Amino acid sequence: MRIISGSLKGRRLTASAGSRVRPTSERVRESLFSVIGDYVTGIEALDLFAGTGSLGIEALSRGAKSVTLVERDRKLAQNLYSLCSTLGILPQATVMNMDATKAITLLARQKSKFDMIFLDPPYNSDWIQTLFRQNLFIDLVTPDGFIVVETAKYTNSARIIDPLTFEQVFSKLYGSSLLQIFKFAKSGVTLNTESN
Fold first, then answer.
1. Which of 94, 87, 96 is nearest to 3 (CA)?
2. CA separation (Å) from 156 to 7, 142, 162, 167, 187?
3. 178's torsion region: left (phi>0), alpha (psi -120 to 50) or beta?
């Protein structure tokens, strides 16, 4: 699996041997970043279930200012750090070896803010519902920021996310994966969703 475009185009992403990580496919990443377009330039991104780092590192490759990669599995986190070092993207990339809840608490304490948060938790988990009910998580998103959610096709996040707070701006099925993008309901920022 490789980075699709940008300054790191063609560089390989790897997972540690024996891991059960399910990286976002190139097809889904290509579609996602064509929707995001130039918005990615200069943003601060958070990849909360990083795995191989495919979403966060792709964002960096395409012009993001920084990315924080959160991964609970120790071997995967070590692999991510080594990969970021090899790619020469430290310190623009920060690797946090902890679960999402602890990371959110720590980032909130540091008063961190992100223009884009990538959520690709394990399928068949209740992470999306759990996160969107936490003020600490919601407060991490800048007023004009976006939350990208990848789930199993039968998990429609729009049904469990408060429509008074968040508006769904994109939703598309890719095989067994459902890709959705949300923004604050009062945000005026738009994305190019027409061609996807």
1. 87
2. 34, 24, 13, 13, 22
3. beta
Match 């990371």 to its residue by tokens.
Answer: 103
What's the N-to-C CA distance of the chain in angstroms? 22
Asked if residues 57 and 85 have their Cβ atoms less than 8 Å apart, the reply is no
Cα 21 from Cα 67, distance rounded (Å): 19
Residue given tokens 């579609």 in the structure block: 31
Task: Decide which of 3.30.470.20, 2.60.40.10, 3.40.50.150, 3.90.180.10 is the CATH code for 39-176.
Answer: 3.40.50.150
* Helix locations, 37-93, DSSP H: 54-61, 74-87
Contact between 106 and 79 (Cβ < 8 Å) = no
pLDDT (tens digit per residue) in 146-187: 999 999 888 878 788 888 899 999 999 998 889 999 999 988
3-state SS class at 83? helix
For the chain, what's the residue count? 196
pTM over 0.90: yes
